[in-house]
């Protein structure tokens, strides 16, 4: 009987240890940035007020199905599950994202082993909109702050240059509209030894390969009236994405993570 009890205890211990050994490890990837990253489905009455506008972050989660996690192991380590937490918000620059307490909320939630992917620049560069504008040095300083505080929490920062707009096109190629801001991101990445995804370059090349007419009508928010309830008069917007555009940009980001 004594040996039987010992055997039962031993088996129970093994089962308990096994349960802990195979416990799933979830990594949260926080996305911070502007409207091109944001998840509009979180907003009230999305279908009637915003659809089909999306940010690429809104389309990111499906790329992290269990069968595809092995493709980004170099980025996510031993995580067996990835949760995308999209905190990006339209109209925000690095400064306003910080001033409104949005970064503080992310920082408070961060856990060791998480990741923060940061893509700003569209609004930082808006000289005419002083409530958003951040000059190059200020832009770099806020990026440094996000990076350093991410690392304080034992999480991993990844910098992204701002995704392309659908202009200007020159000689059938899409070119840079963001001035010195993409280079500023690269400078900070080099300075602080942070992983970089050059989304500006990747998206310019990808859109150029598809052609201006196709990109304009299929990827960006350009369509006639009467197509979508939220836009009875149609829309002409070469900054924000339709669903297909958001998916393709999310794919560019995911593929870049595979190559790291």
From TrEMBL:
SUPFAM superfamilies: SGNH hydrolase. CDD domains: Rhamnogalacturan_acetylesterase_like. Pfam families: Lipase_GDSL. The keyword Hydrolase applies. InterPro entries: GDSL, RhgT-like, SGNH_hydro_sf. Keywords: Hydrolase. PANTHER family: PUTATIVE (AFU_ORTHOLOGUE AFUA_2G17250)-RELATED (PTHR43695), RHAMNOGALACTURONAN ACETYLESTERASE (PTHR43695:SF1). Belongs to the 'GDSL' lipolytic enzyme family. This is Rhamnogalacturonan acetylesterase.
């Amino acid at each position: 009987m004594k040996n039987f009890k010992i055997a039962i205890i031993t088996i129970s211990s093994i089962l308990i240890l096994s349960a802990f050994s195979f416990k799933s490890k979830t990594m949260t990837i926080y996305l911070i940035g502007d409207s091109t990253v944001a998840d509009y489905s979180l907003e009230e009455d999305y279908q009637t007020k915003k659809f089909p506008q999306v940010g690429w972050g809104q389309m990111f989660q499906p790329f992290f199905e269990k069968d595809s996690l092995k493709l980004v192991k170099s980025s996510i380590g031993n995580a067996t599950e990835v949760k995308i937490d999209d905190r990006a918000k339209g109209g925000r620059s690095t400064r306003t994202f910080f001033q409104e307490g949005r970064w503080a909320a992310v920082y408070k939630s961060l856990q060791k082993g998480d990741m923060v992917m940061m893509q700003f620049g569209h609004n930082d560069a808006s000289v005419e909109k002083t409530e958003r504008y951040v000059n190059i040095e200020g832009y770099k300083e806020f990026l440094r702050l996000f990076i350093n505080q991410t690392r304080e929490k034992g999480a991993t920062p990844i910098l992204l240059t701002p995704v392309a707009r659908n202009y200007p096109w020159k000689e059938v190629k899409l070119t840079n509209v963001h001035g010195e801001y993409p280079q500023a991101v690269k400078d900070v990445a080099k300075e602080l030894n942070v992983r970089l995804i050059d989304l500006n370059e990747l998206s310019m090349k990808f859109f150029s390969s598809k052609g201006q007419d196709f990109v304009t009508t299929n990827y960006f928010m350009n369509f006639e009236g009467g197509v979508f309830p939220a836009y009875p008069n149609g829309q002409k917007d070469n900054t924000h994405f339709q669903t297909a555009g958001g998916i393709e940009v999310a794919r560019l980001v995911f593929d870049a993570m595979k190559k790291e």
